[in-house]
Design brief:
12 helices; alpha/beta; two-stranded parallel ribbon; elongated; 366 residues; Rossmann fold
């Protein structure tokens, strides 16, 4: 960690704001126990070593922040906001602080105009766990250390993609493997191949393929995608109005769906059900085109399309043409209400979602 901070300080001193993303070191951990140990080392050993660099290099105490589940939600929001703070080379670099020191001795007026009275120091070290995987989009982050190989390849990809998100600067990810962990050694011995093919190694989702609920959520999008890419005429947005939907043109696509469902579910009835549902969906598509009073049907509503075929997940309620627009679309949040009269729920909160009690004009309960 000390070497990484020194490396970032060297780049910043030499190249200035160009290398600002490298100044915050994001250290990713798979367990809070290891993270707590690194925080102690950063605040004690690393700080002590940076303070003993001598007169040639002026180091300051690093600012350390966490992004873990053991933090209060308000502190997490504040940490994310603090990550946006950029380093000011005139206030925070070795050369900048030395120039301010000399200016203070020679020209106090110029020093007063150059110094920033309120300078919120940016974060030097961010210690994070799996909370960093999604929802963090800080453009200036560019350096990450992964301490130990995460258990899931999806977690590894998601976590390491938090850096280098800006086109203005690249991202550098360093993985530190533990020699006494067989999983880490296996990834170390095949490092190049693992990273060249890690897209194939993403773990499958724990959903039942071609179940009724999965078909409700995904069949419309898959079917429209297959039809749209079957012919060139169907590719534009307005291709939804002219795409061939007859048995001759679409029969082979429906058979592919049937064969895939039978293969995955190992059940012929499941394949027949998928075939029938897809055929009914195409009939609805034809009916939707025919009932338009004017204009053409598009896959999505736009100024040129009279109506859109597909609906976004956030458009409630969900219907037969609602379709996820990305793999990040999930079910909406659900509020859970605990029964306070249940003796097994001793920790039930003293509130509920019912209407507030009526109040009479005198201010008391009726």
């Amino acid at each position: 960690m000390t070497a990484l901070l020194e490396f970032g300080q060297y780049l910043f001193d030499r190249y200035g704001a160009v290398t600002d993303p490298y100044m915050t070191v994001v250290d990713y951990f798979t367990s809070t126990r290891e993270l707590a140990g690194m925080r102690r080392l950063t605040e004690d050993d690393v700080t002590d070593r940076l303070g003993r660099q001598g007169a040639l290099v002026r180091r300051r105490t690093p600012v350390v922040a966490e992004l873990t589940s053991r933090m209060d939600s308000r502190k997490i929001i504040q940490s994310l906001a603090n990550l946006e703070r950029r380093f000011d080379p005139t206030q925070d670099s070795t050369f900048g602080r030395e120039a301010l020191r000399q200016l203070r001795q020679t020209d106090r007026t110029a020093y007063d105009s150059a110094i920033r009275p309120i300078y919120l120091r940016p974060i030097d070290v961010l210690l994070a766990t799996s909370m960093l995987q999604v929802g963090v989009d800080v453009q200036r982050l560019g350096l990450m250390v992964v301490t130990g190989q995460p258990k899931n390849m999806a977690e590894y990809i998601q976590a390491t993609s938090r850096v280098g998100r800006s086109a203005a600067g690249p991202g550098l990810v360093l993985t530190i493997y533990q020699w006494n962990r067989p999983r880490d050694l296996a990834h170390y011995e095949h490092f190049g191949y693992e990273h060249a093919t890690f897209g194939r190694r993403v773990e499958g989702l724990t959903t039942t393929p071609f179940s009724k609920r999965a078909l409700d959520r995904g069949l419309a999008g898959v079917l429209v995608g297959m039809v749209r890419h079957a012919t060139n005429a169907a590719l534009p947005n307005l291709g939804a109005h002219v795409a061939p939907l007859g048995q001759v043109a679409i029969g082979s696509l429906l058979e592919q769906l049937r064969a895939r469902a039978e293969l995955v579910a190992d059940s012929a009835p499941v394949g027949d059900e998928v075939f029938d549902r897809a055929r009914r969906q195409l009939d609805r598509w034809l009916r939707k085109r025919s009932i338009l009073p004017v204009g053409q049907l598009g896959y999505q509503a736009d100024p040129r399309a009279a109506a859109g075929l597909l609906r976004r997940p956030e458009e409630v309620p969900w219907d037969q043409w609602s379709a996820p627009m990305s793999l990040r679309d999930v079910e909406p949040d659900v509020l859970l209400q605990l029964r306070r009269d249940d003796p097994t729920w001793a920790s039930a909160p003293p509130w509920d979602f019912g209407p507030p009690p009526a109040v009479n004009p005198s201010g008391g309960a009726p």
